[in-house]
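Submission checklist for the structure archive. All mandatory fields must be present; incomplete records are returned to the submitter.

[x] Identifier: 2-keto-3-deoxy-L-rhamnonate aldolase RhmA
[x] Organism: Martelella radicis
[x] Residue count: 255
[x] Sequence attached
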Amino acid sequence: MTRKSPEAAAIGLAICVMGTVETVAVARRTGFDFLVVDMEHGRIGLDQMTDICVAGLLAGLPVYARVTGPASPDIARVLDCGATGVIVPHVDTLQQAEAIVEKTRFLPTGSRALPGPLAITGFEPVPVAELVDKAEASTQVIAMVESLSGLEAAEQIATLDGIDGLMIGSNDLAAALGCPGDIANDAVVEAFAAIGRAAKRKGKTFGVMGLPPERVREQALDFGARMIVATNEINLLFEGAQRTLGDFRKITERG
């Protein structure tokens, strides 16, 4: 099902294990608005991520790469390899966010090294000024807020030029607030609201990851969320397998 209105929040699928280009075709055909290649928790490496990103460019499906954290050596490299944007987890301080901007943005905002031909230009060699303009225009840098210190620093992080959005890691933030597994706890909901307000005040995108669908309206959309990472491909496979197997068991085990 495709998005009916450009005003509606974008819904994404995380890819953790199945690092093949076929996932792009399936996600595009079923109507997801973007993909997140999860390099933090999954087994996917840079080679598979690059294949998925290039396939996404050809299919018109944005692909973000979630790296391992602010100190990841791949923060700029995933952009060089074709990612629409980079999602950086565990951004706890303004200083960490500043270091991310330094790595991901070209001068004068940051000090990202000038790469060779990029996937976003079809690998065509273009003048440096044109390359930089296209790369900057197409790059999204998202900081994930998942801790008490990150919550406290959210407003400052959102002020930075070069940071395009704030995304909540729902389960980690709930655990940090002393409510592991209790995403609907009042303290967690208020934290979502505070981060959403910080993003809105600074004109930045607000996104969430790890919310069940029954919490999305109250805990994300009502606070201005524009990016929803709905689930991952392993969850879809498991849920689909359970449902299909159950249907067949009902038929084959009838007396």
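[x] Structure attached
Curator remark: Residues 10-252 form a domain with the TIM Barrel fold (CATH 3.20.20.60). The mean pLDDT is 95.
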